[in-house]
Amino acid sequence: MSQNIRFFKxxxxxxxxxxxxxxxKEVDMDLDNVEVKLxxxxxxxxxFNANNDKLQRSYNDLVxxxxxxxxxxxxxxxxxxxxxxxxxxxxxxxxxxxxxxLAAVAVLRPPVPACLR
Length: 117
Prior knowledge:
Helices cover about 65% and strands about 5% of the residues. The protein is mainly alpha-helical.
């Protein structure tokens, strides 16, 4: 609670509002209610931050996919194949093509059971 009070004191001083203005108004405030309200607002801000992080990750993924599609369908297919392989069977080893670029390797494996498709 003392951290919250110090934070509000700092914020009020930055804005140029003094606590005396509030104390002179003789508003009956219950500190328990204020603390509960602060807790609710803090929880709401935490949810906003979590949602913002999820949205940022989704946006970054979409930008990455767009870049892959802009490179051409073969690059996109190779990247998607690599990611699927990494999720299902583990990392796919890159193979040099001789021009400093990497190519995807087709790996023969047993068919995927229908229940996992």
